[in-house]
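User: Hello! I'm new to structural biology and keep hearing that structure can be predicted from sequence alone. Could you demonstrate with Elongation factor P? Please show me the input and the output so I can see what each looks like.

Assistant: Of course. The first part below is the input, the amino acid sequence of Elongation factor P. The second part is the output, the predicted structure written as tokens.
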Amino acid sequence: MMGFHNLIYLWALNFYNSIFMAKASEIKVGNILRYNGELVTVTEVLHRTPGKGGAFYLDKFRNIKTGKIVEARLATDEQVEICRVETNDFQYLYEDGDFMVIMDNTSYEQHNIPKALFGPAVKFLKEGMNVIVSFESEEPIMATAPNFVELEVTYTEPAVKGDTSSGALKNATTENGVEIKVPLFVNQGDKVKVDTRTGDYVERVK
């Protein structure tokens, strides 16, 4: 039987493997920190040297869960908690309530990822599609759909004969039930490329 103290040691070892302390001067854009108890990603690092007083850093952080931007004034040698984050490719399997079930392409291990982590792009996901998910201490903290997806148009009004209005758009429904705007020449059964970040039609796929 493993002793209680050994269990505590192993827990502490795993905990400190997932985070490490660093000085404010070592922070870089893209780092993920635990700041005021919340996970944030560093979006801007500015070094300030005022006429009076010591130098400091004026950083901008984006809260990973809420998306809110916060400013932080940090002394040069102030300690911050940088999190170790693992980011990998996964395959999206299916939707399960408020979660999307994904599978590790190497270990075949499955994870339930909150839909909210994908943001508005979640509606464009198709079964079998590759997605990128980041974990911190086994907790999913960020998820990204592909920037572009190819979807079949399952319904759209036929083009009106003789209507060649440049830039004119009409409504279309894709195979996963998402409504988008497409040019007049796109017909039912066509495949179209869509930008998941904006929901905009890009081109018809041959």
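User: So the tokens describe the shape?

Assistant: Right, they're a compact way of writing down the 3D structure. Reading them back into a model, for example: Residues 7-18 have pLDDT under 50 and may be disordered.
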